[in-house]
Amino acid sequence: MHLNDEEKSMLNGDFGKAKKWALEHQIKVGSFFSARKFVNVSQAHMMVDPESIGQAGVIFLEDLVNKGAKVSIPTITDPRGVDLNYYKPLGQTEEMAEIDRRTIKACTSMGIMMTDTCVNYQTIMPPVYGEHVAYGDTGVVIYSNSVCGARSNFEGGPSALAAGLTGRTPDYGLHLDENRLPTKRFCVKYQPKDLTDWGILGAIIGKQLGSYWEVPIVEALEVVPNSDEMKHLGAAMASYGSTPLFHLHKITPEAKNLKIEQFDNLDLIDINSSDFESLKSLFGRKGDKIDVVVFAAPQLSIVEMQKVASLSKDKSFKVPVIVCTSPQVYADSLRMGFIEKIENSGAKVLQGTCFYQQYAREIGEANGWKKLLSNSTKIVNILGGYGYAPALASMENCILGAVKGEIV
Amino acid sequence: MSKILKCHPGIGDKTEGIVLCANDNFSARYDLDRIKGVFSRPQHKLFGKSYKNKILVLNESKGGVASAWMLYEMKVRDVVPKAILFNKANTILAQGAAHANLTMCDRFIDGDITSLLKTGDKVIVDPSGGYIEII
């Protein structure tokens, strides 16, 4: 990789041991992907939940702090694994909370802002068209690339941290024009009706892509999806396909500059209502008993919080209901009375966490939760590996299911 | 007689071990019980298999960013594959391998690595040389 004078100095240790580690890490990654140089990034977003990093990760972070690590660009965080105001009732241990506390202390010492959100594009500072960033969380990356027209690879925690420290990232993958062009075409024959449908559409496409290096363009959509719908579409596509970018013909910003005729050589894959039914059939059946209902993955927007509050009004839930949102949305929801309405029905709203990132296996075992119902197509994909038998339904039917204790 | 399979230069140290192979994809978060060191996702073709000290051979990496931290955490606890070979790695697994100094290679010139190798094969993996050797 070509290094400029500043990068050579970082590698030499002139900017301290922490930046030296960061640049060495980035050179390893850049070389693997044949990057020729670095590209400056304006923001970094780091996934650093305690379940993923464990004791080893905390010790690594603390060591970087001792080496004088300070981020050089705005660097923010993905959801935490523990809501420190509500972890014992979930069966989370003091050890888990302690890893979280130490992580927070290490991150803040480095100048990282603990935003604890996977919807920063809705709540913090959305990137703009053409802006190069280093984001963690696949849902954040796919939304930022596709809807905002920003440029980011999936940056895992260590790489996002390295980018925060150096203010740059290797120039490969989605930072390059040639990797952003469509490689697969999809024609939608069934128009999504609600958030879950948008997630299912993302899952159907993601499953057929199955690769980080495929870029879908979706044609024949008759509606322009709103931000929450884009959020569920992208999060599911990234989850099922490891997909970091999609184009919606005539809708998303880069698709507007594409001439579809240029991609006539690509097969057009139809997506029919039967494909939606087929995917839904993998996740629960009417009458199945439910142990827990979860609204998360991604964290809920203020609009989703309002809707959950409205649907929860005058309801009494038979099974536990957990709602995960960002600290930013939580504060607004508290002020607007949504938290009170939701929790009056027996649910619990967590702030700054996301269910699957908060020791889902241990929570499930501690509470005897196996049959989990959610409206998130992403979370039902993930939790199969955590010992759950996940089921999928619309937000409305999740609420009704929570009242009845079974899928309606 | 040994056989050489060339690939893109990879990450980590030269190593050797026994192959655990499937034509399936991989995520540390989605597919593993990392404490027990086994595949825990019922739908995965390696469900129930132990990956500790194996040369894990799979199609592509998938899913979320968590795997990057997780590979490091697995390596420190020493419940980790000796190496991972993919047809194509995504950015997360490569970043995780770089952080953990875990051996990883992908982009094999001779075709589908999940077909070229089978479970039980003994191989040497040389990332800097850009090849593996079936011995």
Structural domain tally of chain A = 3
Work out the number of β strands of chain A.
14
CATH class of chain B: Alpha Beta
CATH architecture group name of chain B: 3-Layer(bba) Sandwich
What is the CATH homologous superfamily assignment of chain B? Phosphohistidine domain
- Second-tier CATH architecture of the largest domain in chain A: 2-Layer Sandwich
**Shape, principal axes of CA atoms of chain B:** globular
CATH topology of chain B: Glucose Oxidase, domain 1
- Per DSSP E runs of 2 or more residues, the count of β-strands of chain B stands at 9
The mean pLDDT of chain A is: 97
Distance between the termini of chain A: 57 Å
Structure summarized in a few sentences:
Chain A is an alpha/beta fold. Chain A has 16 helices and 14 strands. Chain A folds into three domains: 5-170, Aconitase, domain 3 (2-Layer Sandwich); 181-280, no CATH class; 292-404, Aconitase, domain 3 (2-Layer Sandwich).
Question: What does it look like?
Answer:
Chain A is of the alpha/beta class and 408 residues long. Chain A has 3 domains: 166 residues, Aconitase, domain 3 (2-Layer Sandwich); 100 residues, no CATH class; 113 residues, Aconitase, domain 3, CATH 3.30.499.10. In chain A, 42% of the residues lie in helices and 13% in strands. In chain A, the strands form 4 sheets. Chain A has a 5-stranded parallel beta sheet. In chain A, strands 8-7-6-9 form a 4-stranded parallel beta sheet. In chain A, strand 13, helix 15 and strand 14 form a beta-alpha-beta unit. The longest helix of chain A has 17 residues. The N and C termini of chain A lie far apart (57 Å). The mean pLDDT of chain A is 97. With 135 residues, chain B is of the alpha/beta class. Chain B has a single domain, classed as Phosphohistidine domain (Glucose Oxidase, domain 1, 3-Layer(bba) Sandwich), CATH 3.50.30. In chain B, 22% of the residues lie in helices and 35% in strands. Chain B has 4 helices and 9 strands. In chain B, strand 6, helix 3 and strand 7 form a beta-alpha-beta unit. In chain B, helix 2 runs parallel beside helix 3. Chain B is globular and about 35 Å long. Classes of the chains: A alpha/beta (408), B alpha/beta (135). Chains A and B meet through helix 2, helix 3, helix 7 and helix 9 of A and strand 1, helix 1, strand 3, helix 2 and helix 3 of B.
